[in-house]
Design brief:
3 domains; 10% strand; three-stranded antiparallel sheet; 53% helix; Arc Repressor Mutant, subunit A
Length: 232
Amino acid sequence: MAKAVVVHLQKASEATAEEIAAAVGAAGKDDSTLKRAMSLARDDGYIRRVGVTFHGIKWDTTEWADLQLLDTPHVRRLEEEIVAFVRDFGLVSLDHISGELGLENDAPEFRAALERAISDESIGWYCNGIYGLSQSQLGDFEPKHDLWAETKPATEDKDLGGALEELESAVKGLARAMKASGGVDAIPVDGAPDDQDDDPYEGLRRIQELHDAGVLTAEELAAKKAELLRRI
């Protein structure tokens, strides 16, 4: 839904939450899934507040999602490097890409190059600062290395370590879901390979992780929970 919000604002150029809700099929401006989606789009730098009217807060895209692509040799070179990096690993984070290029996440030239790559559909934005190949390309993709394990920092901070493990697990779950190439209904609810025994309790833990990571909406989470509970 976050992507749908961005696409609508790219076409509408400023809209209230009520107008956005109607455009993306949400239950209203207070729809929890819509709020989550807009928060993700804002945190990833694609939408922003632009004013307040009697009808509510107005939203618009930022310069990194306005489809006004910066076409310079430097930005095109960075775009090529971003696409090549994503093609090596399939699914990466914003920090992975910026670290590879040696730039800050909000560096103008970096964001401009990222915008070009997304607009060209060379890579896709999966929210939560996660970018990757298209679903069809991920179908049979095997990364050269486990980038998430290689870049996981060593730390004695239990809270940070737990958060990193949860993020890593959620991202790998997203990768498995994308490989299924069948949308949300194809996400393995037990979070395990097909040749392992089904464990509905483990499945409940996995789908909660996917929901917390923004991969599953509240409605999709409820549907998957109901499916698992029928198997217990």
